[in-house]
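Re: the request from the purification team.
They wanted to know what the chain is likely to look like in 3D before they choose a buffer screen. I agreed to run a prediction and write the result into the notebook, where they can find it.
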Amino acid sequence: MPIVIKSTMDKTNNQQDDNLKGSNTVKNPDDWKTGDEPMTGAQKSYLHTLADTTGEDVDENLTKAEAAKKIDELQKARNDNSSQSNGNNDENSNAIKDPDDWKTGDEPMTGAQASYLKTLSDEAGEQLDENITKAEASKKIDELQQKTGRGQ
């Protein structure tokens, strides 16, 4: 069974965390053995995607652990921005575009999406379809984040 690492930064996931107590699937990034290594390419790519939706900058020199925490932080900010701008079609807002409206949504999913979906699929106990589009991958990420409690 693969080991899935989940940040416990956001304590709104207490029920999820409680369900996994005693499990080796949850580990705080501060406790990662390789947490002080440079962030992975997948983390960097996903951080840039999240930063684009939240208007934040990404420190290119983050460690794996720091990147995991920043991903959790930006996911929360993205979700907060999305709920605040719900129904706001202002072109200057940080509203997230529906994947069905993406110009490149029918292209194959990105490496960052594939990597994150692998993590989420493993954690959710689901099979990953590796032949989905960018738009489908985005929707699946949202679905699996809800199922696993990530990104809340």
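For the purification team: The radius of gyration is 15 Å.
Please add any questions underneath this entry.
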